[in-house]
């Protein structure tokens, strides 16, 4: 018998949908998921092993449910790098920032409520909204992918969303959102709501500009979400976190599963945080490579969106999927995010970026 998903009583809003995920193809150069290309340094691998061994002895017990030591270290990292004091009471951590976003939507969204994002942006915001029964509103952007403030203000006033997502630097476009824009959106959201404004700073360490963490001062409806998946080069660890008013940290605990962060995860993240300075050195290299990709793609005649992230959006193509395939045929996997006319490439090692640039150069040559 052919029994499939459609034969199960799945929720109506999930019918006919596909799970999120970039293709994980086995090709020599993978520049499609905005990962950090550098493996963890050996001294850190050693430290993780030590910390995890220690944690393993106590795996008969549940982990620290409130992840106090980890949140304290994350708060120290934020305070040191963003120049704004953040304490344990301001920080919450979960399994990747996707889980942070899910917990926020479970807390502040849900059936009968809505969330808005300005698209193209990180598609999981809309997908997690759907998964939590939250209605999704797609807000507008200008042609240069900056947020259309007038239209955004109108949409917020009209729909009165419960959650407003702002991704800066934005994925997949790469551009950062100026602080004034976020402030204007916050004001609009408070006038219509008050609703929560979630600033997704997954890529902030790669930005030319500063984190918006200082905006938390006096704004209890603002949340900044972060991850160790990108700058820390630890996508496999699954550790995301947020900074916000302590009331927000109390609120998300109403929906978190008890002991959601395993003792192994907490031990590994703590070890990585001990090596913050070494890991952040790679960020400088990746920023330089990102800038090189922008310059070389422009020199080749491509249009490139200004990038503050560890990836670059380039175009324009009459058929971006066909070009994605041509690049893949040359052994390099980039991302077709479904933004018509554009593709996205993650900054890899210098050799990986050279392979990518050779591929697009070759394609250009073939066309001329
Ligand atoms: N936010 C943005 C903007 C992202 O691009 C990603 C990952 N691609 C995430 C959040 C989620 O990252 P993670 O769950 O690995 O922290």
Structure summarized in a few sentences:
The modification N6-(pyridoxal phosphate)lysine is found at residue 230. The protein is of the alpha/beta class and 368 residues long.
What does this 3D model show about the protein?
Belongs to the class-II pyridoxal-phosphate-dependent aminotransferase family. Histidinol-phosphate aminotransferase subfamily. It catalyses: L-histidinol phosphate + 2-oxoglutarate = 3-(imidazol-4-yl)-2-oxopropyl phosphate + L-glutamate. Pathway: Amino-acid biosynthesis; L-histidine biosynthesis; L-histidine from 5-phospho-alpha-D-ribose 1-diphosphate: step 7/9. It comes from Streptomyces fimbriatus. One of its GO terms (molecular function) is histidinol-phosphate transaminase activity. It is a single chain. This protein has 368 residues and is of the alpha/beta class. Helix 6 (179-192) links the parallel strand 5 and strand 6 (196-200). The strands form three sheets. It has a seven-stranded mixed sheet, with helices on both faces. A three-stranded antiparallel sheet has the order 9-10-12. It contains eleven helices and twelve strands. The protein has helices at residues 42-57, 68-82, 96-108, 123-131, 149-159, 179-192, 246-252, 263-274, 276-299, 320-329, 350-367; strands spanning 29-30, 91-94, 114-118, 135-139, 163-167, 196-200, 222-227, 240-244, 303-304, 311-315, 332-333, 342-346. The chain has two domains: 23-39 and 278-367, Aspartate Aminotransferase, domain 1 (Alpha-Beta Complex), CATH 3.90.1150; 42-274, Aspartate Aminotransferase, domain 2 (3-Layer(aba) Sandwich). The protein is globular. Helix 1 (42-57) runs antiparallel to helix 8, helix 2 runs parallel beside helix 8 and helix 3 packs across helix 4. Bound molecules: 4'-deoxy-4'-aminopyridoxal-5'-phosphate (PMP). The site of 4'-deoxy-4'-aminopyridoxal-5'-phosphate (PMP) has 13 residues, from helix 3.
């Amino acid at each position: 018998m052919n029994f499939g998903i459609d034969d199960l009583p799945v929720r109506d809003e999930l019918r006919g949908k596909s799970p999120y995920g970039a293709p994980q193809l086995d090709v020599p150069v993978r520049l499609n998921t905005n990962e950090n290309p550098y493996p963890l340094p050996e001294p850190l691998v050693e430290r993780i092993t030590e910390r995890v061994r220690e944690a393993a002895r106590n795996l008969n017990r549940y982990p620290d449910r409130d992840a106090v030591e980890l949140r304290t270290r994350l708060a120290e990292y934020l305070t040191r790098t963003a120049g704004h004091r953040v304490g344990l009471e301001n920080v919450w951590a979960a399994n990747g920032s996707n889980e942070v976003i899910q917990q926020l939507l479970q807390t502040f969204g849900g059936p009968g409520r809505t969330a808005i994002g300005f698209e193209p942006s990180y598609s999981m915001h809309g997908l997690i909204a759907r998964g939590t029964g939250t209605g999704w509103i797609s807000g507008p952007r200008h042609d240069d992918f900056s947020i259309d403030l007038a239209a955004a203000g109108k949409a917020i006033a009209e729909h009165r969303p419960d959650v407003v997502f702002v991704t800066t630097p934005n994925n997949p476009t790469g551009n950062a959102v100026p602080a004034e824009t976020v402030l204007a959106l916050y004001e609009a959201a408070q006038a219509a709501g008050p609703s929560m404004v979630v600033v997704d700073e997954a890529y902030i360490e790669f930005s030319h500009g500063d984190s918006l963490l200082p905006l938390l001062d006096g704004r209890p409806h603002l949340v900044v979400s972060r991850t160790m998946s990108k700058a820390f080069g630890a996508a496999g660890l699954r550790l995301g976190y947020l900074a916000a008013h302590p009331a927000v940290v109390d609120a998300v605990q109403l929906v978190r599963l008890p002991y959601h962060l395993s003792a192994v995860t907490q031990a590994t993240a703590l070890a990585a945080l001990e090596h913050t300075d070494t890991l952040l050195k790679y960020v400088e290299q990746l920023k330089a490579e990102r800038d090189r990709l922008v310059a070389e793609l422009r020199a080749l005649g491509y249009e490139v969106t200004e990038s503050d992230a560890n990836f670059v959006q380039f175009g324009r193509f009459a058929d971006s999927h066909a070009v994605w395939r041509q690049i893949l045929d040359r052994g390099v996997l980039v991302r077709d995010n479904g933004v018509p006319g554009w593709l996205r490439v993650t900054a890899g090692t210098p050799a990986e970026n050279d392979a990518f640039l050779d591929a697009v150069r070759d394609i250009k040559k073939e066309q001329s």
